[in-house]
Amino acid sequence: MRSFLLAMCLLPAIGWMPPAPAQVRRCSLPDGSLIYTDRQCEAIGARERLPPVLPADGTYQRRMLCARSPQELADGLAAAVQSGDANRIAALYDWTGMGSHTANAVMDRLQAIADRGLVDVQVLRSRSADSDADTPQRFDETSGQLLTPAPRPSRILGLQLSQVQKNGYTPINTRFGMHRRMDCWWLQP
Protein backbone atom coordinates (compact mmCIF):
# COMPACT_ATOMS: atom_id res chain seq x y z
CA MET A 1 0.00 0.00 0.00
CA ARG A 2 2.85 2.34 0.85
CA SER A 3 4.56 1.79 -2.50
CA PHE A 4 1.27 2.55 -4.30
CA LEU A 5 0.92 5.89 -2.50
CA LEU A 6 4.55 6.71 -3.18
CA ALA A 7 4.05 5.95 -6.88
CA MET A 8 0.96 8.19 -7.00
CA CYS A 9 2.91 11.04 -5.41
CA LEU A 10 5.84 10.62 -7.80
CA LEU A 11 3.80 10.57 -11.03
CA PRO A 12 3.55 14.37 -11.24
CA ALA A 13 7.21 14.69 -10.30
CA ILE A 14 8.39 12.50 -13.17
CA GLY A 15 6.45 14.45 -15.74
CA TRP A 16 3.21 12.58 -16.20
CA MET A 17 0.65 15.11 -17.36
CA PRO A 18 -2.69 14.68 -19.05
CA PRO A 19 -2.61 15.45 -22.78
CA ALA A 20 -2.89 19.15 -23.62
CA PRO A 21 -5.84 20.32 -25.72
CA ALA A 22 -5.16 20.71 -29.44
CA GLN A 23 -4.00 24.12 -30.65
CA VAL A 24 -6.56 25.98 -32.74
CA ARG A 25 -5.06 27.54 -35.84
CA ARG A 26 -6.67 30.36 -37.78
CA CYS A 27 -6.14 29.86 -41.50
CA SER A 28 -7.01 31.96 -44.56
CA LEU A 29 -8.13 30.04 -47.61
CA PRO A 30 -7.20 31.33 -51.10
CA ASP A 31 -10.71 32.85 -51.50
CA GLY A 32 -10.14 34.96 -48.35
CA SER A 33 -12.45 33.00 -46.06
CA LEU A 34 -11.33 32.07 -42.58
CA ILE A 35 -11.25 28.50 -41.24
CA TYR A 36 -10.29 27.12 -37.83
CA THR A 37 -8.44 23.84 -37.61
CA ASP A 38 -6.10 21.86 -35.40
CA ARG A 39 -4.02 20.88 -38.45
CA GLN A 40 -1.24 22.84 -40.13
CA CYS A 41 -2.72 25.50 -42.44
CA GLU A 42 -0.46 24.44 -45.30
CA ALA A 43 -1.91 20.91 -45.12
CA ILE A 44 -5.31 22.25 -46.22
CA GLY A 45 -3.99 24.68 -48.84
CA ALA A 46 -4.26 27.78 -46.65
CA ARG A 47 -1.93 30.18 -44.88
CA GLU A 48 -1.87 30.95 -41.17
CA ARG A 49 -3.27 34.26 -39.91
CA LEU A 50 -1.77 35.29 -36.62
CA PRO A 51 -3.65 37.50 -34.14
CA PRO A 52 -2.30 40.97 -33.52
CA VAL A 53 0.41 40.92 -30.88
CA LEU A 54 0.77 43.49 -28.13
CA PRO A 55 4.32 44.50 -27.16
CA ALA A 56 5.53 42.51 -24.15
CA ASP A 57 7.18 45.56 -22.61
CA GLY A 58 3.81 47.21 -22.04
CA THR A 59 4.48 50.13 -24.38
CA TYR A 60 0.97 49.86 -25.80
CA GLN A 61 -0.65 51.88 -23.07
CA ARG A 62 -2.16 54.47 -25.41
CA ARG A 63 -5.84 54.74 -24.75
CA MET A 64 -7.88 55.01 -27.90
CA LEU A 65 -10.07 58.06 -27.56
CA CYS A 66 -11.46 58.03 -31.08
CA ALA A 67 -11.31 55.38 -33.81
CA ARG A 68 -11.12 57.29 -37.08
CA SER A 69 -11.83 54.26 -39.27
CA PRO A 70 -13.57 50.88 -38.96
CA GLN A 71 -10.19 49.13 -39.15
CA GLU A 72 -8.83 51.29 -36.32
CA LEU A 73 -11.87 50.30 -34.22
CA ALA A 74 -11.23 46.62 -35.07
CA ASP A 75 -7.57 46.97 -34.04
CA GLY A 76 -8.60 48.71 -30.82
CA LEU A 77 -11.07 45.92 -30.05
CA ALA A 78 -8.39 43.29 -30.69
CA ALA A 79 -5.97 45.03 -28.32
CA ALA A 80 -8.67 45.48 -25.67
CA VAL A 81 -9.74 41.82 -25.82
CA GLN A 82 -6.13 40.68 -25.74
CA SER A 83 -5.59 42.71 -22.57
CA GLY A 84 -8.42 40.80 -20.86
CA ASP A 85 -9.86 44.07 -19.51
CA ALA A 86 -13.61 44.60 -20.01
CA ASN A 87 -13.16 48.30 -19.26
CA ARG A 88 -10.87 48.74 -22.27
CA ILE A 89 -13.53 47.12 -24.43
CA ALA A 90 -16.17 49.38 -22.85
CA ALA A 91 -14.13 52.45 -23.84
CA LEU A 92 -14.89 51.57 -27.49
CA TYR A 93 -18.66 51.45 -26.86
CA ASP A 94 -21.17 54.21 -27.53
CA TRP A 95 -23.11 54.45 -24.26
CA THR A 96 -25.30 57.37 -25.35
CA GLY A 97 -28.91 56.96 -24.22
CA MET A 98 -28.34 53.58 -22.58
CA GLY A 99 -30.09 52.97 -19.26
CA SER A 100 -28.36 51.44 -16.26
CA HIS A 101 -30.10 48.05 -16.61
CA THR A 102 -29.00 47.72 -20.24
CA ALA A 103 -25.51 49.05 -19.44
CA ASN A 104 -25.05 46.43 -16.70
CA ALA A 105 -26.10 43.67 -19.13
CA VAL A 106 -23.63 45.00 -21.72
CA MET A 107 -20.81 45.08 -19.14
CA ASP A 108 -21.56 41.45 -18.17
CA ARG A 109 -21.34 40.53 -21.86
CA LEU A 110 -18.06 42.45 -22.25
CA GLN A 111 -16.57 40.73 -19.19
CA ALA A 112 -17.39 37.34 -20.71
CA ILE A 113 -15.69 38.45 -23.93
CA ALA A 114 -12.62 39.71 -22.02
CA ASP A 115 -12.30 36.31 -20.31
CA ARG A 116 -11.87 34.43 -23.61
CA GLY A 117 -8.84 34.11 -25.87
CA LEU A 118 -8.62 36.26 -29.01
CA VAL A 119 -8.42 34.70 -32.46
CA ASP A 120 -9.34 37.53 -34.84
CA VAL A 121 -11.40 40.69 -35.38
CA GLN A 122 -12.74 41.38 -38.86
CA VAL A 123 -14.65 44.30 -40.35
CA LEU A 124 -17.84 42.92 -41.91
CA ARG A 125 -18.83 44.51 -45.22
CA SER A 126 -21.72 43.95 -47.58
CA ARG A 127 -20.97 42.43 -50.92
CA SER A 128 -20.26 44.94 -53.64
CA ALA A 129 -23.26 45.54 -55.89
CA ASP A 130 -21.19 44.99 -59.07
CA SER A 131 -20.69 41.32 -58.14
CA ASP A 132 -24.41 40.55 -58.42
CA ALA A 133 -25.48 38.64 -61.51
CA ASP A 134 -28.57 40.82 -62.02
CA THR A 135 -26.53 43.98 -62.69
CA PRO A 136 -27.53 45.18 -66.17
CA GLN A 137 -24.79 45.20 -68.76
CA ARG A 138 -24.35 48.06 -71.20
CA PHE A 139 -22.53 48.31 -74.51
CA ASP A 140 -20.78 51.28 -76.04
CA GLU A 141 -22.67 51.83 -79.29
CA THR A 142 -19.72 53.35 -81.12
CA SER A 143 -17.11 50.71 -80.28
CA GLY A 144 -19.43 47.77 -79.58
CA GLN A 145 -17.51 46.94 -76.40
CA LEU A 146 -19.02 45.96 -73.08
CA LEU A 147 -18.96 48.80 -70.53
CA THR A 148 -18.19 47.79 -67.00
CA PRO A 149 -19.89 49.90 -64.36
CA ALA A 150 -17.74 51.51 -61.69
CA PRO A 151 -17.79 49.34 -58.58
CA ARG A 152 -19.89 50.75 -55.79
CA PRO A 153 -18.26 50.76 -52.37
CA SER A 154 -19.39 48.06 -49.98
CA ARG A 155 -21.36 49.05 -46.91
CA ILE A 156 -19.87 48.48 -43.45
CA LEU A 157 -22.06 46.11 -41.43
CA GLY A 158 -20.10 45.74 -38.18
CA LEU A 159 -17.30 43.76 -36.57
CA GLN A 160 -16.95 40.03 -36.02
CA LEU A 161 -14.90 38.97 -33.03
CA SER A 162 -13.59 35.40 -33.23
CA GLN A 163 -12.45 33.81 -29.98
CA VAL A 164 -11.98 30.44 -28.32
CA GLN A 165 -13.90 29.33 -25.24
CA LYS A 166 -12.09 28.93 -21.93
CA ASN A 167 -11.38 25.27 -22.82
CA GLY A 168 -8.89 26.61 -25.38
CA TYR A 169 -10.27 25.09 -28.58
CA THR A 170 -14.03 25.65 -29.03
CA PRO A 171 -14.56 28.63 -31.36
CA ILE A 172 -17.14 31.33 -30.63
CA ASN A 173 -18.02 34.36 -32.78
CA THR A 174 -19.54 37.60 -31.53
CA ARG A 175 -20.87 40.29 -33.83
CA PHE A 176 -20.90 43.95 -32.91
CA GLY A 177 -22.80 46.68 -34.64
CA MET A 178 -20.88 49.88 -35.22
CA HIS A 179 -21.70 53.40 -36.23
CA ARG A 180 -20.08 56.73 -36.77
CA ARG A 181 -20.84 59.58 -34.39
CA MET A 182 -18.95 62.85 -34.00
CA ASP A 183 -16.38 61.70 -36.59
CA CYS A 184 -15.50 58.58 -34.55
CA TRP A 185 -16.43 54.91 -34.97
CA TRP A 186 -18.06 53.21 -31.97
CA LEU A 187 -19.28 49.76 -31.04
CA GLN A 188 -22.97 49.39 -30.40
CA PRO A 189 -25.19 46.55 -29.16
Automatic annotation (TrEMBL):
> Basic and acidic residues: which segments have biased composition?
127-141
List UniProt keywords, sorted A-Z. Answer: Signal
Highest taxon of source: Bacteria
Which residues, if any, are the signal sequence?
A: 1-22
From the UniProt entry, list the residue stretches annotated as the region Disordered: 127-152
Output this protein's name: DUF4124 domain-containing protein
